[in-house]
């Protein structure tokens, strides 16, 4: 299909430029919120050393999940080219959402997901479906967050201790759903237990880190306990799978 | 919380998020306009019909579930930068733990915002480098050798995270974890719907916590 700028191409420079502008916009938003939060934290006498530790630990923790997200980009690239998956998985999207959404849209259009989209209209339809399909959370946050936070604040004002228990319960609700998910395949046999063993290894590594930090006073490890446990368990998933798979 | 930060955060958040909504629509709109290839309305609606019922529900539920944990700044940023349950929320929880601050406090909100911003930079940088080095990296990351490591990223994340938070609040954790274990073992096909089950777990945890709180067990 020919448009204002010629033949449609999944990896055309135009698509990279538009995606790049949007990624830069979101980076600008991140810089804005980072500066505001950092300044306010300093006003509240949170030391710069603590903030730097938080930033460093967050950066290190992000590496492994970000590589998994990058693999989501690779998975979509053959079908949608580079710019759209790059954009969607750098900002707004989620690796658990983009592939199903793109697949559903492709099925409606009768386009195979195993090869690159060649038709511009099919591509834009998929891009619109992927965009409009995930936008609800952001709309709710934009319109209602002030009210939601007002509700949480008034809950805490009425009973501060219950307010804290309420938020702890929210964490545990999320964690319990993902921990339950790990057991979803155990009925298929020993291979279904692999994720359970990996989770246990990760938990044991975290306990070992706790021992190093609290008993042996290896203080630096406190900031990196989560990425150490996570990467260690991912590495050990390889021999566990080879042994049981 | 009555600082200029807490007074202004919703104004800043609403402006940035409104602009972000426009920016996100810019990609499909610009491509449609440049190629003169606007979607067929019926096909677009059919595509949306397959996506919207589940993912709008998930999005709305995530907004109510995650925002009390992330605080205002963290939520305005997190919902724009994406990848919440697999990255930004665990990252924020870890950061608050390291800084020794409570979620829901102003300090917790600030630490969560800083963690999400940094995580967003690192994710963007890694994906950018990955896209640049696609041909070199793809065979390594998709190799048979590394496949089990990436197949188990969620168990590896939630095992370590679980130990920290369950050990601190094991009484609250018993009910939702027991429920989720039974549910997923009985109905494995729910694995695809884990996002919808997050608020179910939260509701069970809150219900159980309220009963124990009223009886003085917490």
Structural overview:
The complex is a heterodimer of chains A (245) and B (218). With 245 residues, chain A is mainly alpha-helical. Chain A has two domains: 133 residues, no CATH class; 62 residues, no CATH class. Helices cover 78% and strands 2% of the residues of chain A. Chain A has nine helices and two strands. Chain A has a two-stranded antiparallel ribbon. In chain A, helix 4 packs across helix 5 and helix 6 packs across helix 7. The radius of gyration of chain A is 22 Å and the shape is globular. With 218 residues, chain B is an all-alpha fold. Chain B folds into three domains: 60 residues, no CATH class; 83 residues, no CATH class; 50 residues, no CATH class. Chain B contains nine helices and no strands. In chain B, helix 2 packs across helix 9, helix 3 crosses helix 4 and helix 8 packs antiparallel against helix 9. The radius of gyration of chain B is 20 Å and the shape is globular. At the A-B interface, strand 1, helix 1, helix 2, helix 3 and helix 4 of A face helix 1, helix 2, helix 3, helix 4 and helix 5 of B.
In summary, what is this structure?
Helix content of chain A is 78%, strand content 2%. By secondary structure, chain A is an all-alpha fold.
Q: Which range does the strand content of chain A fall in?
A: under 5%
Helix content of chain A: over 70%
Tally of domains of chain A = 2
Total of helices of chain A:
9
- The shape of chain B is globular
User: Mind summarizing the main beta sheet of chain A?
Assistant: 2 strands, antiparallel
Approximately how much beta-strand content do the residues of chain B carry? under 5%
| Major sheet description of chain B | none
Tally the beta strands of chain B: 0
- Can you tell me the residue ranges of chain A where pLDDT is under 50 for at least 5 consecutive residues? none
Mean pLDDT of chain B: 93
* Element string of chain B (H = helix, E = strand): HHHHHHHHH
> What is the total domain count of chain B?
3
**Arithmetic mean of pLDDT of chain A:** 92
Number of strands of chain A: 2
- Residue runs with pLDDT of under 50 for 5 or more positions of chain B: none
Oligomer: heterodimer
């Amino acid at each position: 299909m020919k448009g204002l700028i010629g033949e449609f191409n999944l990896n055309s420079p135009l698509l990279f430029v538009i995606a790049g502008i949007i990624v830069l916009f979101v980076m600008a938003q991140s810089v804005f919120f980072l500066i505001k939060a950092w300044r306010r934290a300093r006003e509240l006498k949170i030391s710069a050393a603590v903030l730097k530790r938080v930033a460093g630990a967050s950066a290190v923790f992000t590496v492994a999940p970000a590589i998994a997200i990058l693999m989501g980009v690779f998975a979509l690239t053959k079908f949608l080219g580079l710019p759209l998956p790059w954009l969607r998985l750098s900002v707004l999207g989620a690796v658990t959402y983009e592939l199903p959404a793109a697949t559903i849209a492709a099925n409606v259009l009768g386009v195979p997901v195993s090869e690159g989209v060649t038709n511009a209209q099919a591509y834009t339809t998929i891009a619109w479906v992927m965009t409009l399909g995930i936008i609800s959370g952001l709309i709710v946050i934009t319109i209602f967050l002030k009210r939601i936070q007002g509700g949480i604040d008034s809950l805490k004002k009425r009973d501060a201790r219950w307010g804290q228990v309420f938020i702890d319960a929210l964490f545990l609700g999320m964690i319990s759903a993902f921990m339950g998910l790990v057991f979803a395949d155990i009925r298929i046999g020993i291979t279904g237990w692999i994720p359970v063993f990996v989770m246990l290894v990760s938990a044991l590594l975290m306990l070992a880190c706790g021992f190093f930090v609290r008993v042996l006073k290896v203080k630096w490890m406190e900031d990196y306990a989560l990425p150490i446990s996570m990467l260690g368990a991912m590495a050990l998933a390889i021999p566990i799978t080879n042994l049981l798979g | 919380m009555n600082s200029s930060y807490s007074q202004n955060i919703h104004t800043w958040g609403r402006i940035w998020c409104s602009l972000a909504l426009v920016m996100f629509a810019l990609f499909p709109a610009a491509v449609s306009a440049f190629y003169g290839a606007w979607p067929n309305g019926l096909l677009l609606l059919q595509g949306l019909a397959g996506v919207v019922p589940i993912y709008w529900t998930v999005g709305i539920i995530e907004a109510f579930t995650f925002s009390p944990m992330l605080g205002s700044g963290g939520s305005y940023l997190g919902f724009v930068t994406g990848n919440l349950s697999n990255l930004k929320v665990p990252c924020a929880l870890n950061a608050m733990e390291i800084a020794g601050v409570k979620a829901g406090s102003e300090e917790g909100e600030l630490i969560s915002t800083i963690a999400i911003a940094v995580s967003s930079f690192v994710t963007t940088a890694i994906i950018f480098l990955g896209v640049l080095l696609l041909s070199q990296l793809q065979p390594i990351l998709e190799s048979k050798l590394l496949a089990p490591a990436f197949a188990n990223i969620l168990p590896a994340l939630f095992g370590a995270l679980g130990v920290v938070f369950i050990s601190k609040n094991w009484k609250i954790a018993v009910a939702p974890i027991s429920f989720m274990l039974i549910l997923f073992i009985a109905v494995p096909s729910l694995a695809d719907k884990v996002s919808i089950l997050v608020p179910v777990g939260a509701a069970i945890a809150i219900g159980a916590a309220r009963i124990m709180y009223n009886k003085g067990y917490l």
